[in-house]
TrEMBL record:
Name this polypeptide is given: Cupin-like domain-containing protein
Pfam families noted in UniProt: Cupin_8 (PF13621)
InterPro entries: Cupin_8, JmjC_dom
Record domain JmjC: where: 116-273
PROSITE patterns membership: JMJC (PS51184)
């Protein structure tokens, strides 16, 4: 897929003091060379074996297995559905991290290698001590740090709720991003049966079927891309669609996820699924009424929504939420849902 627009780049950012303007950006940014001083990135400049040996230093002897996603060579690295969209073209295996690394190195010279992907593995659990030498301060954010290891793979365009700082450690990657507003033009598959937890675009970026997906041309016109090398980082704002292609036989990425919402806040996806269950199939007139209700109490909500007619002590869920109030609402919802 041809993408002409490049993601804006910043060079020379101090990894010890990433600006708040970057970490709160509403648009993607490439931070060239942000991780150049990481020892694991320097190992990547030597060879895949050097990276694997470096990671072995931190691997827990008694650690739990990692989940390796494995697909046959015929999928060309694209972990996806089967032809019916009721199954997948890959399998998952629980293996020790060291075994996954050895397998990747073994297949690194095989042009017909199976697709192998160890995704979203929590660093502090599987590689304790790694972050003492390879880490980024993120302004006090309580970020989840994960490592992703694989060979040539293609991860379908999807959204993540948290903000994401994706850091390329080894190998090269191409990232293709779309604004959140391109939802209807990306032809998203099932919401509750997905390859890896998030709903994905059904469009194969390597072989776009424009007859089947005619509106994709509009999404393509809004796409931005970046080619990332070891030491580069990509900031992906919350809910931006992103397609990630690992281009080399051995790839490692570290990412940080964090939300700008309080820790006690529920995920909006729960709300979406409840709305599908309770509102989507109402008669059109009733559905339109509920659209107005949501706009009034949620999307257009501000102090003026209740000021002047509901005294502050009586506002309850109409007031700004805190952890206590959220817990009360959650308990009430659970009681109703479990009736």
């Amino acid at each position: 897929m041809q993408v002409d627009k490049r993601i804006p780049e910043i060079v020379g950012v101090d990894p010890r003091a990433i600006p708040e303007a970057v970490l709160r950006s509403e648009t993607p940014l490439v931070l060239r060379g942000l991780l150049a001083d990481w020892p694991v990135v320097q190992a990547a400049q030597q060879s895949p074996d050097a990276v694997a040996q470096y990671l072995h230093r931190f691997e827990r002897v008694d650690g739990p297995p990692v989940v390796a996603t494995v697909g046959p060579p015929e999928i060309d690295g694209r972990f996806f559905y089967d032809d019916t969209l009721q199954g997948f073209n890959f399998r998952r295996e629980n293996v020790p991290l060291g075994v996954a690394l050895k397998t990747l190195l073994k297949y690194a010279v095989d042009p017909a290698a199976p697709a192998i992907y160890v995704g979203s593995t929590t660093i502090d659990t599987w590689l304790p001590g790694f972050r003492a030498e390879n880490d980024l301060p993120l302004g006090g954010r309580d970020a989840l740090a994960s490592i992703w290891i694989g060979n040539r793979t293609r991860i379908a365009a999807h959204q993540d709720l948290p903000d994401n700082l994706a850091c390329v450690v080894a190998g090269t990657r191409r990232a293709t991003l779309f604004p959140p507003q391109q939802l209807e033009n990306l032809y998203i598959g099932p919401l509750d049966f997905t390859p890896a937890g998030q709903a994905v675009s059904l469009v194969d970026f390597a072989d776009v079927d424009h007859a089947r997906f005619p509106r994709f041309a509009q999404a393509q016109a809004q796409a931005q891309c970046a080619d990332l090398a070891p030491g580069d980082a990509l900031f992906i704002p919350s809910m931006w669609w992103h397609h990630m292609e690992a281009q080399t036989p051995f790839n490692v990425l570290v990412n940080y996820w964090w939300r700008q919402a309080p820790a006690w806040a529920n995920t909006p996806m729960d709300t979406l699924m409840l709305a599908i269950m309770s509102i989507r199939d109402l008669p059109p007139a009733e559905r339109a009424i509920w659209g107005d209700v949501f706009r009034h109490y949620v999307f257009d909500y501000d102090e003026d929504t209740v000021a002047g007619h509901v005294p502050a002590p009586a506002r309850r869920s109409l007031a700004p939420l805190d952890e206590t109030r959220a817990r009360e609402i959650r308990a009430r919802l659970l009681k109703r849902l479990n009736r």
